[in-house]
Amino acid sequence: MSAHIYFLGIGGTLMGSLAQLARERGYRVSGSDRALYPPMSEQLAAADITLYEGFDPSQLDPAPDLVVVGNAGLPRGHPGIEHVLDIGLPYMSGAEWLGREILPGRWVLAVAGTHGKTTTASMLTWILEQAGLEPGYLIGGVPKNFERSARLGATPFFVVEADEYDTSYFDRRSKFVHYRPRTLLINNLEFDHADIFPDLAAIQTQFHQLMRTVPGGGLVIAPADSEGVNEMLDQGCWTPIERVGQRQLRRRPHDRDSGVYWHADEIEHDQSAFDVWQNDRRIGRIKWSLQGEHNIQNALGALAAARHAGVPPEIALEALASFEGVRRRMDVIADVRGTIVYDDFAHHPTAIRATLQGLRRRVGNEEIIAVVEPRTHTMSLGTLRHELTTCCAAADQVFWFRGENIKWDLHEVVQHCVVPAQQFDSIDRLVDTLARLPDKRRHILIMSNGSFGGIYSKLPARLREYRQRPEQD
Question: Which domains are present in the chain?
Answer without folding.
Answer: 4-95 (3.40.50.720), 103-321 (3.40.1190.10), 331-465 (3.90.190.20)
